[in-house]
Design goal:
Radius of gyration: 16 Å
Structural class: mainly alpha
Strand content: under 5%
Shape: globular
Oligomer: single chain
Largest sheet: none
Number of helices: 5
Distance between the termini: 53 Å
């Protein structure tokens, strides 16, 4: 298997595992906030899997190259520092998201 094929498979497995496990956790969540987090995580993991499947059908080589780059980025762990900057660059204001997670006492 090529590195690109392995990367697509690895991302698909991670997305499907997350979707399934978070769906199970959603039903067991002790409160509405955790239920929202699990449900949203499950839905986004499923959406990512579906997007990867469609992209692979349209452009297998391009998707494989993208997947290899993405796996490398995820393995490095640097994306955590970039998320807010990317949101701002796209015209979103992440501050309300932070405020929702850290309500004033």
């Amino acid at each position: 298997m090529s590195d690109e094929t392995v990367a697509v498979r690895r991302l698909n497995e991670a997305a499907l595992e997350a979707a399934n496990r978070l769906s199970i956790r959603c039903g067991k969540a002790p409160d509405a906030n955790q239920m929202w987090a699990y449900g949203t995580g499950a839905a986004m993991a499923w959406a990512f899997y579906q997007a990867m499947e469609r992209l692979t059908e349209i452009d297998p080589d391009g998707t494989g190259a993208f997947a290899a780059d993405l796996v490398e980025e995820l393995d490095s762990g640097d994306y955590g520092e970039l998320m807010s900057d990317v949101a701002r660059d796209l015209g979103f204001d992440p501050q309300p998201w932070f405020d929702a997670e850290n309500p004033a006492a």
